[in-house]
Amino acid sequence: MDETRVGVGRHIICEFWGASNLQDAGHTERALEHAVAAGKATLIKTVVHQFSPHGVTAVAVLAESHLSIHTWPEMGYAAVDYFTCGSHVDTDAMLGSLKESYQPERVETRELARGAAPESSSLAEFVEFEPAALYRAGYEVSEVLERRRTRFQDLMLFRHPRAGKILALDGIVQLTDVDTYVYHEVLTHPALVAHPDPRHIAVVGGGDAFIVAEALKHDSVEKVYLLELDDDVVEVSRKHFPEASAALADPRVEVHVADAFDSIASMRDELDVILVDLTDPIGQAARLFADPFYERCSRALRADGFLVAQTESLHFHRDTVRQCYETLAGRFPRVDLLWGALATYPGSFWTMAFASKGLDPTVARRRPALDTKLYDVDAHGWFFIPEPVRTKLLSAPAPLA
Ligand code: AG3
After folding, report:
1. CATH of 3-114, one of 3.40.50.2300, 3.50.50.60, 3.60.90.10, 3.40.50.10860
2. Catalytic residues
3. How does pLDDT run across 1-13, given as a tens digit for each residue?
4. Residues with Cβ within 6 A of ligand 1?
5. Which CATH architecture has domain 180-395?
6. 345 CA closest ligand 1 atom index
7. 50 burial via Cβ count (<10 Å: 0-12, 13-18, 19+)
8. What tens digit of pLDDT does each residue of 364-380 get?
């Protein structure tokens, strides 16, 4: 089966009205075999049964599932359906061939995505499974654009009737057209504006390339290294998100598909800013929320360097926020917290830890003209949680048991 399948397969159900040649078993067998050949599917075997006084049932078993037909000659009707789990099967050609064989006056076709959303109770719903959340977020699915098991995770990209495209990894929403700008702008611009001359940037994770796109808005930037583990995320974003494809085509961008824990190790004293855009600290990403990785980042940064890392929500993941903050504070002389309000990340009150090797990050040292939806250099300080509030939040116990 192809990697880019939608669900496990497509089930297409057709109604043929006003059809001819419905009584002949031999014709039926040939019709199925022609259709299979036209669709470039692989026939395993055909079974045909002639009913008395009338009607034929035939099933072609395919390497890619099946094609079947049941005829009611007295009504001029045939019930046709084909199920294919092979994306190479040309289902339009199959249908075209069947139409030629039966000459129906009217055809109706319905399509079902089979096995498209096993975690959801209904095929037309995506239910997010976020272990730390107090509730399950359910999203209507108007179209599944990609669904695949990559080498590292489960990837699903779907269209929501109002929210545009939604990318989920391992069942957790990563970006939506609704609020993604908040996350990406807050993770990127405060650091690039506070830095006196940000030229060399590394993005850790962030294979969807939205952070890269934000970083490229700064003319000072000469090089952006995208250190992403999962090539499929890059490929899917390149295909479906125009901002990602534009960013990845920029000559300043270098994509390194590898574990960032290893790729950052070869960089010494050469980066101005590291932007860490990871999935939750579960599974393979967990190692990149810990001190051995921060140590490598610190070595890769120049003397004025900054590291900004997504660190989850204050409501549902307070222990993670605290742990990241404290771990970074053990490694960097100064750590602040940025914040953003995200509608589609459970916990909503999102944080990004801002670690500095020395410079005060709350000072806007440059005034680049930026095309942004939220970040504004005149409100630079507003993106930082003020110290007394940060201390209050981080010293309180996690609100959830
Ligand atoms: N990466 C961080 C998403 C975290 C979502 N977590 C959650 N909802 N529990 C987003 C990738 C966008 N470039």
Report:
1. 3.60.90.10
2. 277
3. 333 334 567 889 9
4. 130, 172-175, 206, 208, 210, 277, 279-280, 310, 345-346
5. 3-Layer(aba) Sandwich (3.40)
6. 8
7. middle
8. 999 999 999 999 999 99
